[in-house]
Design goal:
The complex is a heterodimer of chains A (about 475) and B (about 100). Chain A has 16 helices and eleven strands. Chain A is an alpha/beta fold. Chain A has a domain of about 250 residues: Amidase signature (AS) domain (Amidase signature (AS) enzymes, Alpha-Beta Complex), CATH 3.90.1300. In chain A, helix 9 links the parallel strand 7 and strand 8. In chain A, helix 10 crosses helix 12. The termini of chain A are close together. Chain B is mainly alpha-helical and about 100 residues long. Chain B has a domain of about 50 residues: Histone, subunit A (Orthogonal Bundle). Chain B has three helices and two strands; from the N terminus they run αααββ. In chain B, strands 1-2 form a two-stranded antiparallel ribbon. The chains are: A alpha/beta (about 475), B mainly alpha (about 100). At the A-B interface, helix 10, helix 11, helix 12, helix 13 and helix 14 of A face helix 1 and helix 2 of B.
Chain lengths: ~475, ~100
């Protein structure tokens, strides 16, 4: 059985088509892996019967020669995606019994392409967090240094933990300020946040609508390309969805980067970044140089303002989006004598502390008398941040940065909210500018924890992002497997 | 925005909690006030940035929002709409009494 877990998404897809094993066998191997790694707490819902049916249908398609791009490949879904008749909680108590009556566009695209759904994966509550510690059902553990109970990062912590632990072949994530890239970095896997508008937001629980974007968490860059091919696409049901055909990313795996220019922003090497990360960042720069790229020092002068802008805009949009949880149309209700009291006690009990903090900040910065000073100001600085990137992309093709300032930290070490927010210092700027970014593992630090490096491309240049990331991946030769992974 | 008036105290927290329709237990109000002050203090560094000639950026899509014709495309799914309601009756959502 364990042999089947060695296949990544792409190699498993080829092996299935060559009938080396069946989707049913592969899916079964993953259910054994889920059981073996259940102490990590990555899964909120396990859909054994449903996935067995999906796997059998896939085996039939493979037999009939009608296999689709992801035929028979078992994957996990972050609990932010609405899945028809399958409990969807966004890791919140307020949605503890929510069964959507529709399927999100992104997950529907995956099922239409033949993928098999293993289950729903934990995340920070409403995707608000960087450690997976705000999940209503408790912490998710990083499979690396499993005895030390490290954070998988967040908010897509369950997705990252499951892929690293080999209890899912790949998983979906959502990224608002780094929620795919930071957990991917912490768990030693690949995480890709596409350009804003590449993947439909329809049916994804809304957090910050001008930033939210779905993307894949996978073992390799090729897997990310294969999965994003299926996830992306124009959708009339999302007015911000880009009406733009994405080229088949599988054609860009081996294009190389000869003659390409890689920007190294001076603002991303500040105090507080760990020495091991700096050292692997320098190695990564040299790898790209050795592969034929030209290295260009660049400046993104407004970088230090990205986090303050984010912590105004994201809570503002969240306070508006989360107004829908009113105890009337769906979700949990706490009874009270009047309608207003019912709203207040329902929301007071249903939301966790971090979500409440963000709703409060958002309401404050949008309230009368403060709107211009905070919200409008943040939107103006957001433009300056985007213009920084526009200017740099006149000069270079890609930007290379560390994914995070530190590697994973131990769960349960109480941190104040601001310290936690600093985790996303390198991922938030590209989010504010709507740019695609990928984090991939390039090495281990002294304690044996994975280090992630981020590549950022211009809008809609996912093909080039994949080509460049593949070069880095081949140079880094990151072949380590987490000690807590399924055997 | 970093002037004194913008720093929150417990009455401000009460007001914002009311606007947010959030019941905040008395015991956690001081901590929440401190957290909000820390966060608002942190974001106040935006004051340093000169934005006098900068237009606010609300969306990065670069495309105009698409329009569609005003036609019904969905409907007759009352049972689905009510399926997750904590309480419903005769095709309606039920809420606590709102008139005296």
């Amino acid at each position: 059985m364990s042999d089947l877990l060695k296949f990544d998404l792409l190699s498993a897809s080829i092996a299935l088509k060559n009938k080396e094993f069946s989707s049913l066998e592969l899916t079964n191997a993953y259910f054994e892996a889920i059981e073996q790694t259940s102490a990590l707490g990555a899964y909120l819902e396990i859909l054994k019967d449903r996935s067995m049916d999906m796997a059998k249908a896939s085996d039939k398609n493979i037999k009939n020669g009608t296999a689709r791009p992801l035929e028979g490949l078992p994957i996990g879904v972050k609990d932010m995606f609405c899945t028809k008749d399958v409990k969807t909680t966004a890791s919140s108590k307020i949605l503890e019994n929510f069964y959507p009556t529709y399927e999100s566009t992104v997950t529907q695209n995956l099922w239409d392409d033949g993928a098999v759904m293993l289950g729903k994966l934990s995340c920070d509550e409403f995707a608000m967090g960087s450690s997976n510690e705000t999940a209503a059902k408790g912490n998710v553990v990083n499979p690396w240094l499993k005895n030390r109970k490290m954070s998988p990062g967040g908010s897509s912590g369950g997705s990252a933990s499951a892929v690293a632990a080999r209890s899912a072949l790949a998983a979906t994530g959502t990224d608002t300020g780094g929620s795919i890239r930071q957990p991917a970095a912490f768990c030693g896997i690949t995480g890709l946040k596409p350009t804003y508008g590449r993947c439909s937001r329809w049916g994804i629980v809304a957090f910050s609508s001008s930033l939210d974007q779905a993307g894949p968490l996978t073992r390799t860059v090729s897997d990310a390309a294969l999965m994003l091919n299926s996830m992306a696409g124009h959708d009339k049901k999302d007015s911000t969805s880009a009406n733009l055909e994405m080229p088949d990313l599988m054609n860009y795996l081996d294009k190389g980067i000869r003659g390409k220019k890689i920007g190294i922003p001076k603002e991303y090497t500040q105090d507080g970044i760990s020495d091991d990360i700096v050292s692997f960042y320098e190695k990564s720069i040299n790898w790209l140089k050795d592969s034929g790229a030209e290295i260009v020092p660049v400046s993104l002068p407004h970088t230090k303002y990205a986090l303050p802008v984010y912590y105004i805009i994201a809570p503002a949009e969240a306070s508006s989006n989360l107004a829908r949880y009113d105890g009337v149309r769906y979700g949990k209700r706490n009874e009270a004598a009047s309608l207003d009291e019912m709203y207040e006690t329902t929301r007071g009990n249903g939301f966790g502390d971090e979500v409440k903090r963000r709703i409060m900040i958002g309401t404050y910065v949008l309230s009368s008398g403060y709107y211009d000073a905070y919200y409008l100001k943040a939107q103006k600085v957001r433009r300056l941040i985007k213009e920084d990137f526009d200017n740099v992309f006149e000069e270079v093709d890609y930007i290379l940065t560390p994914s995070t300032p530190t590697t994973s930290f131990e769960l349960g070490k109480k941190q104040d909210p601001l310290t936690m927010y600093l985790n996303d210092i390198f991922t938030v700027p590209a989010s504010l500018a709507g740019l695609p970014g990928i984090s991939l593992p390039v090495g281990l630090d002294k304690s044996g924890l994975p280090i992630g490096i981020q590549l950022i491309a211009n809008s809609f240049d996912e093909p080039g992002l994949i080509s460049t990331a593949r070069v880095l991946e081949r140079s880094a030769e990151f072949n380590f497997i987490a000690d807590g992974a399924a055997k | 925005m970093s002037n004194k008036e913008s720093i929150v105290d417990i009455p401000t927290v009460n007001k914002i909690a009311r606007l947010s329709r959030l019941n905040i237990p008395e015991a956690s109000k001081q901590n929440l006030t401190n957290d909000l002050n820390n966060i608002l203090g942190f974001v106040a560094q935006l004051d340093e940035v000169n934005t006098s000639d900068v237009e606010p950026l609300a969306s990065v899509t670069g495309h105009k929002l698409p329009l569609r014709s005003d036609k019904v495309t969905d409907g007759n799914i009352e049972d689905l709409v009510l399926k997750n309601a904590p309480e419903s009756s005769s095709g309606f959502f039920v809420v606590p009494k709102v008139i005296e």
